[in-house]
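Section 3.1: Structural characterization of target chains.
Under the original work plan, the team committed to producing a structural model for every single-chain target entering the pipeline before any wet-lab resources were allocated. The record below documents one such target. The sequence was received from the expression subgroup and is listed exactly as submitted; it comprises 358 residues.
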Amino acid sequence: MQNNYGKDDKYYTEQDKLNVIRMREVLDTLPRFCRQYFRGIEPTTSARTRLGYAYDLRTFFEYLHNVNPIVRKLEIKDLTIDILDKIEKEDIEEYLEYLSLYAKEDKEITNAEQGKKRKMSALRSMYTYFYKSELINNNTPELVNMPKLHENEIIRLEPNEVAMLLDQVEAGEKLTKSQLKYHEKTKLRDVALLTLLLGTGIRVSECVGIDIDDLDFDSNGVRIHRKGGYNTVVYFPEEVRDALLQYLDQRKMMIPVEGNENAFFLSLQNKRITVRAVENLVKKYARNVTTLKKITPHKLRSTFGTNLYKESGDIYLVADVLGHKDVNTTRKHYAAQDDENRRRAARMVTLREKPKGN
């Protein structure tokens, strides 16, 4: 692995291209003035973020089109920017209520606090852009409180469950007959993949983007492409190194489909493994370890973060390794561990020696 943080990330470049194509398709369904907004935020946002905002804004304008008699008379793409000044605080509050449960194309869609907050963020971003550009007079979404998020307990695997998970992947225990047919082919890959996720805390999107030349076994480092669009090196322990090397021997014997030659983790079709495929394999193995916890790749990341914080007690170290830009994000997730640390500190302090014999 060359120490080159500016390498040509072909995989991520292709993903950005796909997002741009999808973005153009969504833009054709939005009011024309939205194009100016998305051009305006392009320098400070990723293609993926803009696409997410576009989907959320489409939901908002479709809602308006369905419930507002004035808007209903026009095609959504023909709406003009003055419509934003006609929307009142109550309209947005009703929109948030609508998001709790609605139907689209015969599908029932629900949004909890997180989904509502994301859609409100998109709406606020658009309004703020046009308000600062002095193209509208009111920044109405700012008058509406953001949905309050209720902190959920961190779901993670206990140490014995981690051991059970990896043992099960190696042995293929509790798999169905159909799953066992492919197990020998995927066993080394799956052990390497799960060991890497559990041993480094990287995101599943970062994991699937790893190329063969991103791995350096002299330094036990892997170069990954972070969520924010930058490259960095994450280091892994010997247990992860051993699992990766075993899979690498098998990987060298595989003939990838054209365009996937550099991908480290390959699917049974010899293409770069997808995020969805990793989510499915984690679910497949984890359900045989625990039925009480819904284990996803992100929960493996939480498992790593919790273990690292328990061992180090350093929230800044955890934030750095996990790639959190704001340490408060990390602190929010691992607050429960803070409480245990405070209890441990209380047990360390002795004010007076106990009398002998007590």
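Residues 10-143 form a domain with the DNA polymerase; domain 1 fold (CATH 1.10.150.130).
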